[in-house]
């Protein structure tokens, strides 16, 4: 009972307190913060400055887009000023916004919006990596007028105030409405007087059809953009080509340019690249696939000139074709057009052997007191060589062997010591090869046998080769060379020391002329390093034994007869 | 029990009474120091002057900007063609190397400079008052201290104006929060003229000799002032005065080039304070430099790919012939690490605990090459070439980097190339190219453009070239925070 009374008492006092609290509270009005930040949104920014942006605001309202640029999000808006829109209207012969069709206005708004926040410090000379909501990519650059440089968009619009942060993104104020691409590549070629001969060639080879197709997306949603290198009539004239007939005479070897195997067809196909590649995209990669089967175009930048197909090949510099940067980067609805200054054609090359001395690396060449100087060595850690990558934190050592030693019989007298190739953390090493011409090659790897090394498999551009190499295996000096070759081994060096062995790794199909990646992966553990001298890529139809490789870098041919005569 | 409470209360009361009165009656301002309280004795002045030098080494505790030398390096190198920002560099740093510069980029903050400028201003303004207070303080001592402060202030403004072009010129001490901070910018010309004026005053007051090599290289001497004068007059395009200033240093007989030998690197850079040296910032074992982290442990910058082969050259036929300033002096050729500030000898590196290599502000070779630049502009080609030859000879420069120009333009190029070799990574390259490019109303803008064409990534090259055609872009923006704090400032129009 007492217990009960007591709890009743407590209950009563709580009740009284509670009522009191309610009374006290009820009278004051609670102020809640309705927003967490007071920054204006895009719409607010536009509304705050009607002097400059009233027309764009009107367009937003007409198209019903004002709501969504006022809401939460991360957008980039290229905001044209009233002057810019006036100019746009005049150019279309319209006196007010009402005269422009709803559809065009909607496209206009969407062309000026990107659904990502992008500030000017990520601009390049090419396209903004995210497309506009309209679907077209915008290009950026910079232009100097009267000593004053401004960032430009789509070449014509100058950014007059950049990087204005607002609540739902970022605004760049521009002084012109961005032009929208209206022509396909085929239409563009057709409409340009200075490209008439090139256009004729495109039509004659039937390439105008693919160049006229609107943008589509394949099952992986990769867009069907194309990039075209066109050349002007003047460039043709300078090469002595004045008419389509001249072109056919010079290039068409089957007489039927519509045939995909015809050289004139290839001539055109070689100028078309899959993908949307502005100059800034071209220069970021040394070679690009073309529509001519397995042919690539090389791109190099020399100072500020972009050169196509400039290569040093077999020690010879082949001069490149300059790109006309001013006239390039023209956006079409289905791609981009570039102009080259001179005539060029597919480089025809036949497979030639590549003896890849793995120690010949640019970083080592820079060290003349070590590179191929007998008795010197230098060590590299991961990341220090641009063309060799490897796993684990151990080193790779370049060794130029003491003159007269057995080891110095290696090709160029040097090797790379891989510390060490074994299963676990340092299980792989990857080389960028020198340029290999497209074709079929047999791959051989020459190494100094080490009983404590590992067994490894090789990959060429990610494709596994058929055989493995056992770096522990000595060369069989008894078997006749041809028999030994048929078993997948050979003596690759001109010197006859037994410490080196050469192992056939398999046949590779090099599909494009260029640099490729050769990778070794360990299959076993190892207690010692692997010593690699040279990796040979010999065309399949070539003799695989001769010439042999000399310690001084010379190639030694069979009839020079340093060796006793061969068996077969 | 009760007594205890009484006792405690009483004690508390007494304590409170004693405490309360103290500050209450104090009328001194709390947001500054009163003039009369500043320096009392000559020792105070001396401590203040030494404090200036100290402040140039590392930033004070609790300040979160970078050491002055870090800015000197970045502003002088990152937009030029000798260094490459690595993955350890911040995005802000990388943006500057790509000429994508916004005024929100904290690398453009100049607070470290104005902090030290204020130390200098305080000495210049208040040290003379000590003459009355401390009878042992002589006019000669005072002059010498003032000269040091004037010169360091001049050097700091010189760096600021070369980096930002127009900056606020504050020449009096900030002693309280009430001082006026709303100061508009002065033009580069005005700043350079003020600097020239200050240096003339300092030259008349400075010491020639402090009695020890470390002090002669670590403190401002008359000859350090002459060196800075030569540099300033080059920017003012007053070549006669440049030559005069250089001749004062040359004729002093205090300085000489140290011929190439095995310990050359160790003597000139690792040890420092050599006869080649005119003024160096004296890092020591007690006050280590920031370079061990900057260039080795987590290297923010390495040498760019062109340095070994194109700047210093490589003799493939005879590798024993090499430019002593190249591999294993300025850089390590195999991995392009910047070696000048971390090496002990050509083979051995300093450790973190011994990373005390100085920052080199002026060396004798600078005098020779500045004189060459001035002579070349005055039409004395032979004189210019002879001076370049002198620098090259002691460095055993390679034949392949030798040029035989006969016209002013060619010699300008040659001097720039030689300066790139001689002062690699000493924070001078961008300013050297800019100074030569802007001469005669940007007659040689091509120098800047071709440097950028070779060094910036090719995907932004065209934009960068277009930006560089606008001379406003050659100077960094004023950090946005400064614009908030000082409403009188106007942003460089390129960054608006």
TrEMBL record, chain A:
Source organism, top-level taxon: Bacteria
In terms of InterPro entries, this protein maps to: Adhesion/Biosynth-related, FAS1_dom_sf, FAS1_domain
PROSITE patterns of this UniProt entry? FAS1 (PS50213)
Q: Where is the FAS1 domain?
A: 40-178, 182-344
Gene3D superfamilies listed in its UniProt record: FAS1 domain
The record's listing under Pfam families reads:
Fasciclin
Q: What is this protein called?
A: Fasciclin domain-containing protein
UniProtKB/TrEMBL annotation, chain B:
Report the principal subcellular site: membrane
The UniProt entry, under Gene3D superfamilies, shows: 1.25.40.390
Keyword Signal carried by entry: yes
Q: Name one Pfam family in it.
A: SusD-like_3
Report which superkingdom the organism of origin falls in.
Bacteria
Where in or outside the cell it occurs: the entry states:
Cell outer membrane
The UniProt entry, under CDD domains, shows: SusD
SusD-like N-terminal domain: residues covered: 23-234
RagB/SusD domain sequence ranges: 337-495
Task: Supply the PROSITE patterns for this chain.
Answer: PROKAR_LIPOPROTEIN
Query: So which residues are the signal peptide here?
Result: none
Read off the InterPro entries from this record. SusD-like_N, SusD_RagB_dom, TPR-like_helical_dom_sf
Claim: Oxidoreductase is one of the keywords in the record: no
Q: Which UniProt keywords apply?
A: Cell outer membrane, Membrane, Signal
Q: Which family does it belong to?
A: Belongs to the SusD family.
- Tell me what this protein is called: RagB/SusD family nutrient uptake outer membrane protein
